[in-house]
Structure formats: C-alpha cells, structure tokens
Amino acid sequence: MLKDKMEKAINDQIKWEVYSSYLYLSMSAYFESVSLKGFASWMRIQFMEELTHAKRFYDFVIARGGRVILTEIMAPPADWDSPQAVFEETLKHEQHVTSRINDLVDLAQELKDHATNSFLQWFVDEQVEEEESVDEVLQSLKLNENNPGGLFMIDKELAQRAFVAPADVTL
C-alpha cells in the first residue's frame, strides 16, 4: 500500500508526464507548421512515449491500492525560434523530469518504500536514454547551424524513428 505522501507525489508526476506529452505534441505541431515532417514525427513519438509513462505511473498507483487524482494540465508553448531552440527546450525539460524522478526515488527511500523504489528504477534508466537522445539531436543541429542541407538530412533521419509500445503498458 502506498503511503499518502508517496501517492500524492506520484499523482503529481502523472500530471507532469501528461504535460510532457502535451508539450511534445505542441512541438510536433510547430514542426508541421514549418514543414519539417521528420522532426514532427519524432516529437509525435515523444508524445506517445510520455503518455505511456503517465499510464505506467497510473497503473502502479492502482496496483499499490492507491487512488489516482488527476489535476489541471497547463498549456504548453506553441512557437519557437528554430529547431535548435525546440531541442534546447526539450533537453531542459527532460533534465527537469530527471530531477523530479530523482526526487521520487529520494522520497521512496526516505519512506522505506522498497516497491516504489524498485518501480522507479525503470524511470531512472529511461531518463538517461531520454536526455542522451535529445542531446544527440541537439548536437547535430548545432553542427549544422547554418547549413540548410544539414537540416534536411536531420529531418530525414528523424523521420525513421518508430514508436514501439511497451508490452507491459496498454493505453
């Protein structure tokens, strides 16, 4: 059974995971508006991944006998100055999410909640991957800052990414 403090913290994380999905869908819409279909597709996949993260937290709360309480999601930004600016914001956002996950781990350890601590390790590992993949794109954008041909190649490369739904999460 989840302690109240842990349940409240995970409910707040569900909100952040849904906000993350909303942010990435907004970024996808921005990329569609500037005809960067590969970038838009990459962000749509991020959108779907974040929804599965929210669902994973949701399912965990239920499995531990807790109650999910959904709260208001703020509107994400809609415009950026460049693809590089989008990925700079994305990296900053993922670093914020990493910090939140680390705080949840700290809380689980403080509460001696071993089941939640074990559950959260998947997210710790996931955040390493998230930050790495975003930074990879950001570094490519920086290398091609004044090279429209390079932007075209990055767009084509990002279009190759495919969403693979985790076997243990159904939406």
CATH architecture: Up-down Bundle
Structural class by secondary-structure content = mainly alpha
How many strands appear in the DSSP assignment? Answer: 0
Between the first and last Cα atoms, what is the distance in angstroms?
24 Å
From the structure provided, what is the oligomeric state, counting identical versus distinct chains?
A: single chain
Helix-strand layout with pairing:
Layout: H1 4-33, H2 37-63, H3 83-110, H4 114-143, H5 148-158
Helix pairs in contact: 1-2, 1-3, 2-5, 3-4
Explain this structure to me?
With 171 residues, this protein is mainly α. It has a single domain, classed as Ferritin, core subunit, four-helix bundle (Ferritin). Helices cover 74% and strands 0% of the residues. It is built from 5 helices and no strands. Helix 1 packs antiparallel against helix 3. The radius of gyration is 17 Å and the shape is elongated. The chain starts with a helix and ends in a 13-residue tail after the last helix.
Short description:
The chain has 171 residues and is mostly helical.
Any descriptors?
171 residues; mainly alpha; Ferritin; 5 helices; 0% strand
